[in-house]
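anyone seen this seq b4? input:
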Amino acid sequence: MGHSHDELWEAVQDRCAALERGTELVTPLSGRPFRVVEIGGDRLRIHFDDSSEERTLWPGQFELLADRVAEHRLDVTGLQPGVEPYVTVLTLLADYGVEDDDVVYVSDPEDGGGSPYLVSPVDARTRPERLHDDALLLADVLERQEPADPETLETDTLTDLYVLLSDVQHEADRLRQTARDALLARLGPDQELHGRFGTVRRTVRERRRPKDAETVFDVLDDHGIPREWVIGVDPDKLDIVLTVTDLDEDEVYDRDEQTYVQKTDVEEGEKYARLQGLEARIEQLAGSERTDLREDLRALEDRLDEALSA
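predicted toks r here
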């Protein structure tokens, strides 16, 4: 199973050449839409639809990425922006699959190649549109089943419920990251922002990691500390050394800070009141209007089925 490096590059070229003209792809984490605009002998050129940016993808990077996936699988939630287009293109190949939209792995060629990062021309919706549609379908399923225990559901219904929950979770998390970045631009230090449904504040979390082994060993030598105390530069061992000596933490650790938005409160009462209001408005609709709403949901399901079959 798998390709040699030359075969991998040929497979990448062939798969990109087979894409329908104008096919849109998206990066796994940031959701940036792009298209392959040129397939060369030693490169691919892509164009991002959300800007005028163009980038070149190189065979050697595909080789490194494929080797990494073969050895350890690849979690896309920690990808650097420059790696994302490579992952998208790699998952077009039949030798690679994507588990729960998050983990790329080497798959059976009979099962792979169904990349979640390839946007069907029939249904090229934006991420917010996909989330909106999936949430409507999920609400419809939940309404039809009422507050049923999943263990009591029919297998096909339980399958649909799981798929919709998974889709809503992934799209909501990606949209949450976008909202987080926008909030960070508006949040000052120690500031809280209040909405109707909750409160957020800016939080700074410090992460530290050992410096390279040579630097750490030189510092230990300077302080007369035996190297074997921290062989392998184990952070736990380093922490013990820091505790029992006068070694300064900054001499053996590089540190950086990660800034993020932390949810600190949820106004469940407000959420419930809002839901009650929506329910009351629906009940006020005439019978024909409620029927039209149900038909709209059915039409949405049909449209999604058509897109997936395409």
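The two ends are 28 Å apart (CA to CA). The first strand starts at residue 24 and ends at 26. kinda curious what u guys think
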